[in-house]
Amino acid sequence: MKKLVIAGAIAAFGLVSAQKNTLLVGGNISYNNETKKNFTNAGDLKSDDFEFTPMIGYQFADHFTAGVKLAVGSSKADYYQTVMNGWDMYDAITNIKTNSFTYGVFGRYTLPLNETFSVFGDLDVLFNNTKSTVAATGPYAYTTTTKSNGFGIGFTPNLFINFKNSFGLNFNIGGISYQSEKIKDSDMKTNAFGFGFGKGVTVGISKNFGLK
Description:
Protein name: Flavo-specific protein antigen FspA
CATH topology: Lipocalin
Keywords: Signal
InterPro entries: Beta-barrel_OMP, OMP/PagP_B-barrel
Number of strands: 9
Strand order of the largest sheet: 1-2-3-4-5-6-7-8-9
Shape: elongated
Signal peptide: 1-18
Largest sheet: 9 strands, antiparallel
Number of helices: 0
Helix content: under 10%
Number of domains: 1
Domain Outer membrane protein beta-barrel: 10-198
Order of helices and strands: EEEEEEEEE
CATH class: Mainly Beta
């Protein structure tokens, strides 16, 4: 399996102590390219995933921030397989494309521990719209499109480390989430509850800036 992951963070602006009248602007960019060798009897699975998540908030009181979040994502996967049509064998390609748009609001409480360390928790309420298209070639060629929408609620704790001049890193090690999604023109509906700590680490970059 070959895998390439590129992730970056846009600088976020705010005070470590979350002082009143402070603007918070930031976001993340992630890209994932993966190849799974011999995924089927005919070849590999190749996938690309991209996501951009900007955010902006206003610290209306000491330690408290409220704002909006957006997320634009896209993914593409291609896999090859061999299908039978009578006595004949054909190599077919299945292509899956997904585009998503997420928007919502968040609230944040920040607790400074000292000049270097701070902890904060984000409570998000988000809504999403997704469109997925599956297309296959070969003797059984077809194309189908599925649209869905839903909402989610999540809480994520974070640790901020201030290195110099209010520039530092944010570390997130998990969280709690609930998500509900319904496929349009269908009775299918998914409800999911997630809970996890310590299974993975998300790192972001932040820079502190106070408004006058």
